[in-house]
Design a protein that fits this description.
13% of the residues are buried. With 119 residues, the protein is of the alpha+beta class. 21% of the residues lie in helices and 24% in strands.
């Protein structure tokens, strides 16, 4: 659906959309470039009870992949669950409170550079 919308807007040639495991983050566009990675991971009703540990593990793998493959990029994550974001081991730049229908959500942004990595 997102691809169809970007195509209608005439923006598809400027945007790379892909669905894959977050830890499998290698792509030629990531090397020696700058850009913005936006993700909307599962949260709220899209998560089954007890999946928070798996979500934190996913964020940890995603954070490591970002540090290795996408240094220099910006990252934006739209989620209802901010606690698992700590597993990224990145210092957030900005945080915005938004609504997704009736759900209170957060859009958190990060700069992918060594100065914002947690040790």
């Amino acid at each position: 659906m997102a691809e169809a919308n970007f195509r209608k807007l005439g923006l598809i040639k400027n945007i790379h959309l892909e669905k894959r495991d977050a830890a499998m983050l290698s792509h030629p566009l990531l090397k020696n470039h700058e850009g913005l990675i936006i993700t909307n991971p599962p949260y709220g009703k899209r998560l089954m009870a007890g999946q928070m540990p798996e979500l934190a593990a996913l964020y940890a793998r995603f954070g490591e992949a970002l540090k290795q493959e996408a240094e220099g990029f910006q990252l934006a994550i739209f989620t209802q669950e901010t606690e698992p974001l700590k597993a990224l081991r990145l210092r957030p730049q900005k945080q915005y409170r938004l609504l997704n229908g009736p759900l209170e959500c957060t859009l958190m942004t990060f700069k992918l550079d060594p100065q914002s990595y947690w040790r």
